[in-house]
Design brief:
The chain is α+β, with helices and mostly antiparallel strands. It is built from 27 helices and 21 strands. Strands 1, 2, 3, 4, 5 and 6 form a six-stranded mixed β-sheet that branches. A five-stranded mixed β-sheet has the order 8-7-11-9-10. It has a four-stranded mixed β-sheet with strand order 13-15-14-16, covered by helices on one side.
């Protein structure tokens, strides 16, 4: 957008995509003069956007270029007389941004909006004019990339501009495509600015734009932005990396020879494939050098294998691992499990007889296009919409390309009215570079950043209702709210029935998502008395009182032996049991599946046959796990009494994360009533599990 520029030759070495493409670099200064001075016939495109048209037609042979001609003429006329700080006519900027997008394969509507992306911000052109001339789609995108007025927002203008842009991106990802291309051209031409301003823009690019490019899968823009930021913020390391690459250029490169061997292997196997050597960009070389130390010739690039179908990718992998020595630790399958930014490929590494290790990427040509251009390669996400459907301008548009992280971002930004909070939380959110998917109990899914806990899942699923969350089951097992989640976990969130329940201050230590942290902080601020609460007391060791009092109605086949029911498993009729002779001549009785039975046999304890008396009464110890609430102990005791059961002893442990555990030793008049008793205890509100001790 309105960026000061410098000599386009600045940092030519930090522009690897120009070397890769082999396209003649455009003289935008000359094109700008031609745009201002050269006459244009009405039946053809202006010469200044001929390169844009050529790049566009390479991806979209049947594209209608007339709308581009009209957009260019409006942009050139409205920007006429405006100059960049480098002395170039301003029209060279939207031309360059549009060319970047055209080479990535953007469709016509995106290119039209790109040509006009600064007209509303920097000229007298209005959004109504854009809408009348080019339609609602182009108008929406242009409005999305237009900055808010600094006179209205002051120091908050930049955060609020990004907030506005991200909200628009939630409705149309093409908004962010133009912003990324705009920032790339501005970064290419940043040298004319003061060093401190260069550093400020580079930091915003590093913290916000590069993560967004990564998440949207636009690797071609992301890698060049990384190199340009690297050159500005770390000039010494950049120069040493540049010198390292220059020194390698004068040495023998083993990768072309390895690529020839790969071609021969695939040709012999009858697999049609294109094999390329892809040089690493500057930041990639720098990272590899930091992790591996001294670099070898094969470390300066990777081998890319392009095939036609998904099955061919695995066929290539099989041939590579058969004919070369694979480095197993380097294998990753992003086809079966794509990254959250649409990326799909097989990654592996093979060792050659000469001792070189070459990294290999295998993908289809369509995967390659998406890997380079990300959402730009998906074209118009609304092209399949019903043409006669009346669109409500105030209704959020459903974008099939919207990823989970963007939906989360759009949700939490509504709760962050303070621009400083939004700006800092946005950077923290974008720093999360990996995403997991967890399954809800109702069959739905939740997309969460790696390292997210049950607390994050609660707020992602229930919003502010998660204030009353007091537990969770992960993969069917009870888990604390602080438990981290892994990709593929199934989580069932347990909510308290008490409307006054709220989060503990300690939840902030385990919340990873901005939505959870903002909601928890807001609740604690509105409930200062609860915010001062300290961490709950640690759970006391389990104390079972009276469980060893005697043998009950168990009889050992050993005359005069004292019989005791084991407190670890509290057997009752008609449990299958086993008895063991212990010190003092006593016999302890365990349930047959108790872990202590195996231990007794392992140490050589003498087993004794045990049977139950005909009398039906028995003693048992039960554990009741529940959510903390008033009168819970009274309600549980009442439920036990209604079943005609005597309470011998009861222990209540200190609550942990609003959960309470009760231990009851009970005397039952009839062992057959135990299942009914346990059901009655589970039916008490707040109790979520009852089990034998």
């Amino acid at each position: 957008m309105s960026a000061e520029a410098t000599n386009p030759e600045a940092h030519p070495e930090a522009r690897p995509e120009l070397r890769r493409r082999g396209r003649t670099r455009l003289d935008l200064r000359r094109l700008g003069r031609a745009a201002l001075l050269g006459p244009t016939s009405r039946d053809r495109l202006p010469d200044a956007i001929g390169h844009v048209a050529e790049a566009h037609r390479a991806h979209h042979p049947d594209a209608d270029l007339s709308i581009l001609r009209r957009a260019y003429l409006l942009a050139e006329t409205s920007h006429r007389g405006q100059m960049r700080k480098s002395g170039e006519p301003y029209i060279t900027h939207p031309l360059a941004v549009t060319l970047i997008l055209a080479e990535l394969g953007a469709e016509t509507t995106t290119l039209t909006a790109s040509l006009l992306h600064d007209t509303v911000e920097d000229t007298e052109v209005t959004l109504d004019q854009v809408r009348a001339e080019f339609g609602d789609e182009v108008c929406f995108i242009v409005d999305g990339v237009t900055k808010v007025e600094k006179i209205d927002y002051g120091a908050a203008a930049e955060p609020e501009t990004f907030r506005k842009m991200l909200v628009a991106t939630g409705n149309d990802v093409r908004v962010m495509s133009i912003k990324l291309a705009d920032r790339l051209h501005n970064m290419r031409t940043l040298g004319v600015m003061r060093p401190e301003k260069q550093a400020r823009i580079a930091k915003v690019t590093r913290d916000v734009l590069i993560p967004l490019a990564e998440r949207l899968g636009v690797q071609a823009l992301k890698t060049e932005l990384e190199d340009l930021v690297f050159a500005i913020l770390h000039p010494e390391e950049y120069e040493s990396t540049r010198a390292l690459i220059a020194a390698h250029a004068g040495e023998r490169d083993p990768l072309p020879g390895i690529a020839d061997s790969v071609r021969a292997v695939l040709r012999d196997a009858g697999i049609a494939a294109e094999v390329q050597v892809r040089p690493r960009h500057f930041v990639s070389v720098h990272r590899i050098a930091r992790t591996r130390g001294e670099l070898r010739g094969s470390d300066f690039g990777r081998i890319l294998v392009l095939v036609g179908e998904n099955a061919d990718c695995y066929a290539v992998l099989g041939e590579l691992h058969t004919c070369f020595t694979p480095v197993v630790s380097e294998f990753k399958d992003f086809i079966a499990t794509p990254k959250f930014n649409l990326y799909q490929s097989l990654h592996t590494a093979v060792a050659t007889p000469e001792g070189y290790v070459a990294e290999v990427i295998v993908r289809t040509r369509q995967m390659h296009r998406v890997a380079e251009a990300g959402v730009v390669a998906l074209g118009n996400p609304y092209a399949t919409a019903t043409p006669d459907a009346a669109a409500d301008p105030d209704e959020e548009r459903v974008d099939p390309t919207r990823p989970g992280w963007l939906s989360r971002l759009l949700d939490w930004q509504q709760s962050a009215p303070d621009p400083d909070t939004f700006w800092s939380v946005l950077r923290a959110e974008l720093a999360q570079d990996r995403e997991i998917t967890v399954f809800r109990a109702d069959g739905g899914t939740l997309g969460l950043p790696a390292g997210a806990s049950c607390i994050d899942a609660a707020y992602a699923q229930h919003g502010e209702a998660a204030h009353g969350c007091i537990g969770a089951r992960v993969n069917g097992r009870l888990a604390s709210l602080s438990s981290p989640l892994s990709d593929g976990d199934t989580v069932q969130l347990l909510l308290a029935q008490d409307a006054s329940s709220g989060p503990a201050a300690e939840w902030l230590d385990h919340a990873r998502t901005p939505a959870a942290r903002i909601a928890i902080s807001a609740w604690l601020e509105s409930h200062p008395d609860r915010a001062m609460s300290t961490t709950s007391a640690a759970r006391a060791p389990l104390s079972v009182v009276g469980a060893r009092g005697g043998g009950g109605n168990a009889v050992a086949d050993l005359p005069d032996a004292t019989v005791r029911l084991a407190g670890c498993c509290t057997p009752v009729p008609p449990d299958a049991v086993a008895g063991f002779l212990v010190r003092g001549g006593a016999v302890t009785v365990h349930r047959i599946h108790c872990a202590a039975v195996a231990q007794m046999r392992a140490v050589g304890r003498t087993s004794v046959a045990v049977h139950w008396r005909a009398t039906a009464d028995c003693r048992v110890t039960l554990l009741a796990e529940s959510f903390g609430r008033p009168h819970l102990l009274a309600d549980l005791t009442e439920a036990i009494a209604r079943e005609g059961v005597e309470v011998v002893s009861a222990t209540v442990e200190p609550p942990v994360e609003q959960r309470v555990r009760h231990t009851y030793t009970l005397q039952l008049p009839d062992a057959t009533g135990l299942p009914a008793l346990m059901r009655a205890m589970r039916d008490v509100p707040g109790v979520y599990d009852v089990s034998r001790a």
